[in-house]
Design brief:
TIM Barrel, alpha/beta, about 25% strand, nine-stranded mixed sheet, single chain, 9 strands, 7 helices, globular
């Protein structure tokens, strides 16, 4: 039976300061690699964004979404599904947000003042989904590992950008202990030699179908090799 593969964690050079490839380049790469789709998760206002924080909120959101919009246009052209998300940052603890859109962001500039707990409440009220990204990653900029099992919907159990299998194993143990679903992603910036993601036995048509599949445990984690 065929598997449909989806990249769940990807940054574009249009909106993430650390990204190497543009949205269009990512789309072409993943199409050639045999993926069925990608979720664009650029770094948000409180993370490693490439968009000036001096801009008014609506203009900032417009520019922030250009990476996704460019990817979507290219994906529609060449036959790769492209879905929207973002990666938000709380003192180096990061979360992937799925299920909401540009219009929702436009209408919620107060998002910048939310705590992790408030984020969970408000994202859920709007029908969104929160994944704790690379929860056990150790880097010089990460002062401490902070876990929020009551305020996330899933855990990223494989993250190629960790460059350390121990971090992934710790994340999987944490997810199982707290009975949380798991995801996997490349944390793609461009030029990676290994790739990950989540595969399904059916094609995903929209981000809500992806969320439902993760909740139901229907996704298979793609292990980089």
């Amino acid at each position: 039976m065929s598997l449909f593969r989806y990249e769940t964690h990807l940054h574009t050079s249009e909106a993430s300061a650390c990204a190497i490839l543009s949205a269009k380049e990512h789309v072409r790469y993943y199409k050639e690699a045999g993926y069925a789709g990608i979720i664009v998760t650029d770094h948000f206002f409180n993370g490693n964004t490439s968009i000036s924080r001096e801009l008014p909120w609506e203009e900032w959101v417009n520019q922030f979404c250009v990476g996704f919009e460019n990817a979507k246009a290219e994906g529609d052209k060449i036959g790769l599904k492209v879905f929207f998300g973002w990666e938000t940052n709380f003192d180096a603890t990061e979360f992937l947000i799925y299920g909401l859109d540009k219009e929702w962001l436009m209408n919620h500039p107060e998002i910048l003042s939310w705590s992790v707990e408030e984020q969970y409440k408000r994202i859920h009220e709007a029908g969104g989904f929160i994944v704790h990204a690379h929860p056990y990653r150790i880097r010089p900029y990460i002062k401490e590992i902070r876990l929020f099992p009551k305020f996330v919907d899933a855990v990223e159990a494989i993250n190629v950008g960790n460059h350390n299998d121990i971090f992934d194993r710790q994340a999987l143990i944490y997810a199982r202990k707290n009975k949380l679903p798991v995801t996997a992603g490349t944390d793609a910036h461009g030029k990676e030699h290994l790739h990950s993601g989540v595969a399904f036995h059916y094609e995903i048509e929209n981000i809500q179908e992806f969320i439902e599949g993760i909740r139901a445990g229907k996704g298979e984690l793609i292990r980089p090799s």
